[in-house]
Amino acid sequence: NKGREMNQEDFWKKLYDNKSTEDFQKSAARSGLMSYKEMAEILDKYLKFNKQDSVADIGGANGGLAIEVSKLAAGVVMVDYSLGQIENAKINTEKAKIKNLTCILDSYPDLSQLPTSAFSKVYSGACIQYLDKSKINVAMKNLHRILVSNGQAILFHCHSQKLKKRNPHGRFNDLISFYTFEELQLAATS
What we know:
The chain is of the alpha/beta class and 190 residues long. Helix content is 41%, strand content 17%. About 5% of the residues have low confidence.
């Protein structure tokens, strides 16, 4: 409703902070989304992870994908804007006995907690569409800033047949921007 618009910080808290890993898995299963292992295999196909790679996972939520990628790389730094999800990710990392994954609270597009030229590979799943259009160039500049000179980045959005017909974010649509390939390409090359 128009009188009570939700800001971005409230949106994240409401949508993610109290959502457990089990909630995510149930929701993904209902929506027909692929598993974290399957997503990691697809990322590996394009990014070709190796044991020398330092990888950044932007918007990693509960750490499920970062845990799978950490098995393929030297180390992973996962950032998320939601304190609740950072806590979940730390718990999941401990449960999985993963030692080369660090979970950091940070905002996207700022990525102020991540050092310059520190990562050979960066990926971000289902995050960029949440940014205001005015922030897309900031996001691209910061992704470029954290990558080494010959680094690689993939921005992706997972979807399923069931989600194609509806907005998966429902009533929060007023807080979400959606981008065309051309808009992303322009921001990435400007």
